[in-house]
Amino acid sequence: MPSIIRVSGLTKTYDSGFTALQNIDLEIHRGEIFALLGPNGAGKTTLISIICGISSPSEGTVLADGFDIVKDYRAARSKIGLVPQELCSDAFENVWSAVSFSRGLFGKPANPEFIEKLLRQLSLWDKKDAQMRELSGGMKRRVMIAKALSHEPDILFLDEPTAGVDVELRKDMWQMVRELREQGVTIILTTHYIEEAEEMADRIGVIRKGKILLVEEKQALMDKLGSKLLSIRLQQPVSEVPEALAEFSLQLAEDGDTLCYRYDSRQESDSIARLLRKLTEQGLEIRDLHSSESSLEQIFVSLVHEKEQ
């Protein structure tokens, strides 16, 4: 797929000597939803700030739809909409004025029809005359998205888009993001809610201590790094795992009636068949079987922990 953002050799070192980003190479495909995951202080917001032209790189280049964010700042910035993590707006400004003013900041001519369409799309039309101070946190977040989209950008950055938003509204916003992608907008989001990335993202990047650890298709990442868990409930509890089953590294539940077998999702199913045969040979009767896959959160935690070793 063609790239709409291309980051090459990007490094950011502050005057204090702290290096926030180290030799970042990253390509984001046109029309995808890309999730950037990482612990606090990993460099997510710094990376977004540089791509959006808010902060300057120490080394390296960033192209937004072919425009260099330093040499062609105005052209590059016009391609990008940013919804920052912090909600900031004039408390006494109404919704219509706030969104219209943001459009004007990019030199776009007034377009009431487009602003109306945008507000309706974001379920803000009935709030168009309301002052920002009168809105709920979720509505303010929607206004921030409207402001970011007011100049019709091709790229939208969402920095922690559902922070402080209740679960129901979060799901509504997920649907809204999908609809934006269907309209051709490329979405890049950072999030602490890993289920958000698991629900929406096409590809996932993991950043830690200013370095990109990996970039993968979401499903490929889960297939490659995920594990499966087989829970075997026995007819009769046992006090310990039989020595003959040692090769399977089984975990025995406290109640003694459930054996847990964790295995690589890429392994052949033969290992499960062998395990079940061994259980029969040991005279252990099975009452029930249940299998489950690792979530993206488990994969992320194990990946970051592995890199710390």
Automatic annotation (TrEMBL):
A Pfam family this chain is assigned to: ABC_tran
Keyword Transport: yes
SUPFAM superfamilies cross-referenced by the UniProt entry: P-loop containing nucleoside triphosphate hydrolases
Keywords: ATP-binding, Nucleotide-binding, Transport
Domain ABC transporter: 5-234
GO molecular function, one term: ATP binding
DNA-binding is among the record's keywords: no
Protein name (Swiss-Prot/TrEMBL): ABC-2 type transport system ATP-binding protein
Protein species of origin: Amphritea atlantica
